[in-house]
Write a structure and sequence with these properties.
Order of helices and strands: EEEEEHEEEEE
Shape: elongated
Largest sheet: 4 strands, antiparallel
Number of helices: 1
Structural class: mainly beta
Distance between the termini: 53 Å
Helix content: under 10%
């Protein structure tokens, strides 16, 4: 069984998990991790180090941004992010050292490169308590 989708252009399409583009247009992909608040609602935390492991076949630009705020909604829309960057290859990435302090965090990974795929295998973060939420 498959799900068929009718378009306004008169074509009937089906979902294809192996597709690398949408009729020649890059497929934009996002992954959101969070909300993250290890100290609970009333405790801040400080991220000191984050390590990413991407699948070895990921040979594209994967952008990451760790956003922080007083609650999940504020963290998701926080600008600028607490820290951000880009990975250009798969496998274990260099450790990202930061001193971001927040009550709630959201990690976003993003990509929009044509005809490429990527996958996350592991994300490890070190943090420490950073006091009560005011």
């Amino acid at each position: 069984r498959i799900l068929l989708l009718g378009g306004r252009d008169g074509y009937i399409r089906k979902m294809d998990p192996t597709a690398l583009s949408d009729d020649g247009t890059a497929i934009e992909s996002f992954v959101f991790f969070g909300p993250i608040n290890p100290g609970g609602r009333f405790e801040k935390f400080k991220i000191t180090e984050t390590e990413f492991v991407l699948a070895t076949g990921s040979n594209i630009n994967v952008n990451y941004a760790f956003r922080g705020g007083d609650d999940a909604a504020a963290a998701l829309t926080a600008s600028p992010p607490a820290f951000s960057g880009t990975f250009t290859s798969g496998g274990r990435q260099p450790k990202v050292r930061s001193r971001a302090r927040m009550n709630t965090g959201v990690l976003v990974l993003h990509n929009n490169v044509l005809n490429k795929t990527w996958a996350v295998e592991q994300i490890m973060t070190r943090y420490q308590p950073a006091g009560r939420q005011r």
